[in-house]
Amino acid sequence: MYQPHPRRKFSIHIAIMLACAGLAACETGSTVAPPPEPGVLEATRNGPAGAAEGSCWGRTVSPAVIETVTEQVQLQPAKVNPDGSIAKPPVYKTETRQEIVKARVDNWFETPCPDVLTPEFNKSLQRALQARSYYHGPITGEMDAATRRAVQRYQSQRGPDSGVLALKTARDLGLIAVPRPES
């Protein structure tokens, strides 16, 4: 009977695993990914209920906290003899269920509207983040992935933890005027 060399046996297993992984990565249908939720990846005018007309919003999502609860449920009580001894022990069943401990929360925050995010504004944003050592790429004026990551790193310490630029952050960076208090 043929016995493969141990190293060859390992190589065959690796080849089979890689082939399976390749097949698993193939698309089996022409499903289209659902569009991103409004406000999560870019600003939206579809903000929270009661948002001011014409304002733009971003959103982070705090996921629900779910707990698995396991408990014993009595199906039949114990049968007790007249002398107090147990004739038949009780019958229990183990039930496991999941409970929502804390519901999902949408955390809305006001953002500059897309018409404000011009290439010149984005260049100023990149320079402001670069001056604070959050952005290390070229000044392109594009709201690209590197700029969004820098925005998220900056905001994660101050809130919100999002790659969508918050209006508060734009004001903190000196990119948008802070409204004067009414006298």
| Amino- and carboxy-terminal Cα gap | 96 Å
Quaternary form: single chain
Shape: elongated
**Number of helices in the DSSP assignment:** 4
Number of E-type strands: 6
Unreliable stretches (pLDDT < 50, length at least 5) are 23-27
Tell me the strand order in the biggest sheet: 1-6
| Mean of pLDDT | 83
Helix % is 25-40%
The arrangement of helices and strands along the chain is HEEEEEEHHH
**SSE class:** alpha+beta
Strand content: 15-25%
Reported for the largest beta sheet, the result is: 2 strands, antiparallel
| Rg, nearest Å | 29 Å
Your description of this structure?
The protein starts with 5 loop residues before the first helix and ends in an 11-residue tail after the last helix. A hairpin with a 5-residue loop joins β3 (79-80) and β4 (86-88). The radius of gyration is 29 Å and the shape is elongated. The protein has 183 residues and is of the alpha+beta class. The longest helix has 20 residues, at 6-25. Among the domains are: 56-62 and 110-172, no CATH class; 65-102, no CATH class. It has helices spanning 6-25, 119-131, 145-156, 167-172; strands at 56-62, 65-76, 79-80, 86-88, 91-102, 105-111. The strands form three sheets. The protein has a two-stranded antiparallel ribbon. It has four helices and six strands; from the N terminus they run αββββββααα.
Write a concise synopsis of the structure shown:
This protein has 183 residues and is of the alpha+beta class.
